[in-house]
Structures are given as structure tokens and as C-alpha cells.
Write a structure and sequence with these properties.
Layout (H helix, E strand, L loop, with lengths): L4 E5 L7 H9 L4 E4 L8 E5 L2 E5 L12 E4 L4 E2 L1 H13 L8 E3 L4 E2 L2 H13 L11 H9 L6 H4 L2 H23 L6 H15 L6 H10 L4 E4 L25 H4 L10 E7 L2 E3 L11 H11 L11 E3 L1 E2 H11 L3 E5 L9 E10 L2 E3 L6 H6 L1 E8 L16 H14 L2 E6 L7 E3 L1
Parallel strand pairs: 1-9, 1-10, 2-5, 2-9, 5-7, 6-8, 10-14, 13-15, 14-18
Antiparallel strand pairs: 3-4, 11-12, 15-16, 15-17, 18-19
Helix pairs in contact: 3-4
The structure holds 6-O-phosphoryl inosine monophosphate and magnesium ion.
Amino acid sequence: MFKNTVIVGAQWGDEGKGKIIDILSERADYIVRYQGGSNAGHTVVVNGKEYIFHLIPSGILHKGKICCIGNGVTVDPASLIKEIHGLAAAGIKAENRLKISPLAHLIFPYHKTLDELRELKRTNQIGTTRRGIGPCYADKVNRCGIRMLDLLNPGVFKEKLKDNLREKNEIFKKVYNHKGLDFSRLYREYLEFGKFLEPYVCNIVALLNNAVKADKRILFEGAQGTFLDIDFGTYPFVTSSSATSGGSCIGSGVSPIHIHNVVGVAKAYTTRVGEGPFPTEFDPQFGKFIRDKGGEYGATTGRPRRCGWFDLVMMKESVLLNGISEVALTKLDILHGLKEIKIAVAYKYKNSTFEEFPRDAEVLSKAKPVYKTLPGWDQPAEKITSYKQLPKNARAYISFLENSLEAKISILSIGSARDETLFL
Ligand code: IMO
Ligand code: MG
């Protein structure tokens, strides 16, 4: 039986979560985003048409499914409304099916400006998406954030926005020599957003817990990836939310006792966008070759993604942190035509060998991977409809990963379309 499942990115994001969610949504009743914001870019291809989601769960493409944006998400209302309009233009109605938590924090233009200005001032830039994510979560923890429910109460909203702008504008002027933002325009604009979004606002905690009682099936859609998690990622080169599976409870109001399964999505190689350590990163020339072959450009910012070999040191840590029992391995189709394929099984730094993911920034940035090398395969994976049809060496690669990870590779993606998927 399909149970309540969390889909989590096992690497640095962009693992292909959008496609896997889309496929598994068919068997779910509710699809819930629980963290992140419009820094995410989830691409789904249906009948040759590409959809990119930043906030709305990818499950919206399936008729009748209820899609929730949980309290753990930071919502940029302008971006969300644009997405709703975009769906409507494609003939997909979100009304009645999209539900937004009143407790979700909102992104304001000052968050984006701060994101930008802070990056410029840092010695070591993070390479954020500039979507205001970090500053918005910082306000949440700092207890000055503005939430969805505040937008629906003009008096409360006015006071909170005034408070925020007073402080932010001082910071803008004194720290960044920036002119700051105007209250009235922002206030009016956000009240309009509130009016538009009000029908979507819903008590997600009650909705989902009633769903649990009624034995409905819930799919939790993670954004970003394990190594971008604020606690367990490659800090400080991370995002500002709990991208690991535990975030699904905090970010939705569903208790851990109601979650039964965690599917980790991993690419058959590794990519990363933005700055930070990346032990198995390819040299620039080979990196460009795989980037072009795999179309590795960010769905949100269009930035070229850094590419590297599959990293078992990372993935094993990911299996532990998330409780991954099943892996969806994506983009296997990109790896054909290589003479050999490498997999990092440990790192070496100075005189030490690391089989567990090291947390020391110096080790992580300077360590050299210890590789296991497997023979490559020539035949493209396209048009393959069963595991048996895969080239022998591709199967050997998958078996090696599966045995090393102690998690079952249950889904294999060999292209962006729904039918380019093998269930093992
Ligand atoms: P999806 O859901 C890949 C990265 C940024 C940057 C760091 C911090 O599509 O997998 P932020 O704007 O979040 O403060 O940036 O995190 N990043 C992602 N990388 N996929 C994503 O989302 C990402 N969201 C954020 O590039 O390095
Ligand atoms: Mg993405």
C-alpha cells in the first residue's frame, strides 16, 4: 500500500524531484510543500510541454489532487500569483485545489534587496538565488516576520509592515547606503495580494490531519536538498530551511508518527549550483561536456550547474539523515558514451581517510575523493522499457550503488518525460 511519503533531495538540489513527485502524485490524494520558497525550481514535462514550479507543488498537474503550501514555506505572493496565472493560461485551475497555510511567512521586496546586498558584502559569497529566502527565514526566527494570516487583517498588517520597514530602512541606509523602500506602495500592493490569495488560505493542519484520519495518502514534496539543509548541509553554503525529511513535520503540522516512507531523489552523478565545497566536481572541460549533455542550467536562475561524479560519502550520510528507504535515481540517460564511470567511496585529506561525511570546512574543500571506477556503456538508455534492457554495465553501476547505499533503487529515470521511467 502506498503510505504517507516524503520525497527529499538527497544531494544539493535539482535532483529531479519535480518529475518524481509528478509521477508519485498519481497515487496520492494530497501533495504538500513544506519548506523553501521560490528558490526552488521543479521541472515537469508532460506531453512535451515543460512546466516549472517554484512554489506550487508539482502534483497540481494531476486533476483532483489537493496541493498544500505548508507553514514551513516562505511565500513570495507575487511569484505565487504569477504561477497561479501561468497554470490558468495552460488550462489548469488551481482554485479549490491549492491551499496555503495562514502560518506561512511572506517574502517582501526588502528581503530580496537584503539578500542581494548581504551577498555583495560577504567575503565568501553563498551564491544565493537572490529570492529573499535567507532574510525572510531570519525574520521568522527573529520574530518579526509577517505571515499569510497578517495579510488578511489590514490593521495588524499595517502595524507589522511599519515596524519592519522602520528597522529595515535604517539598515538599508546606514549599512548599505541604499535608499530603502516606501511604505504606502508596499502596503497597498500586499493588501491586493492578500485579497487575491484569501480564498486559498486554509487550516492546513486540520486539513492534513483529517486526511490522515480518513486514510488518505499524503506526499510531502521537499525542495532543495540534504546538503543545502540549514543544519546538516555544507554550512554556510546552504539554504535557510530544513530541507531534510524531518522538515516535513515541522513545515506542515503532520506528526512524525504519520510518516511512513522516505524516498530520496538523487542524480546518477552530482550537481551543485552556487558556491561551496564539492569534492567530486569535474574539471572544467569535462564539467562543461556533462553540463551541456545533461542540460544542467538552473530552473530558477538559469545559472550553469557545477557537475561531478556520484558521491557515496554524501549519499550514505543522506540515507542516514533522512531515513531513506528507497532511492529514485535520475538522469541515468546522461551517462552513456563514457569509457568509465567513477564513484567516490571515501575522501582523503592529509593522512586521513574519511568514509563518513566530514563536517570540517577545510577538509571538505580540500579533500580528494577516493574513486571506485566502473566500466561505462555506449547504448543510450532512451526507448528502454524494462530494467533488463539496460546495458549490462549500467545495471552493474546501479547494483553497486544499491549495495553500497543499503537502500533500494526503486525508480530509475532515463529522460524527462513521464514514460521515461522504470520502476524496479
Ligand atoms: P530545488 O528545489 C539547487 C542553492 C543556491 C545557493 C544556496 C542558497 O530546485 O532543488 P538561497 O537562495 O536558498 O538562499 O540560496 O542554495 N539553492 C538551490 N540549488 N536547487 C534548489 O532548489 C536550490 N535552492 C537554493 O544556489 O547555493
Ligand atoms: Mg531545481
